[in-house]
Input
Amino acid sequence: MPSKKFNDAANHFQMGLFETCYLSPLECMTACVCPCCYAYRQRLTIWELDPQDYVCCGGAYCGFDCYGKKCPYFCLCVEVWLCCWCSIFGSRYLIQSMYQIRNTAFEVFVIWTMCICAIITCILSCFLPDLWSWWMDCICDGIYCALSACFQTQQQAELNYRKKNTTSSLEMNQM
Output
């Protein structure tokens, strides 16, 4: 189980959240077009294709055993399709725990802003169920889609960076 004490870590992601669009445009576009498939592939990369330790949403939210160890690939598929945003942040939690990375103040601000916007949109749709709340919901969904792509691309860049550095250090040790 990952450690929850990564908030004290000094490391940050190798790529800034909004640098992802122009530093890794193909990855960002792929994550934007099909975030569920991207989230599934990313979790497999985190597991290194060995899902023995499957926990729903990476253990970021509750960590109780949902019996996913019996059929982790199916459970992960259900997770990324039904709870995509939670799955993305579950993967982020796993990466932050593995490499002792913490969010920057800007990343925290973006996360909280999106949560607050989603709550406001939900409340407004209860009291104003008309075209205005529908447009607010569409705008909020579009921003969520773009941000999920940025988060996933940032996470993938970190995984690629760590894998490359691990591979190069292993090659140096063998010489």
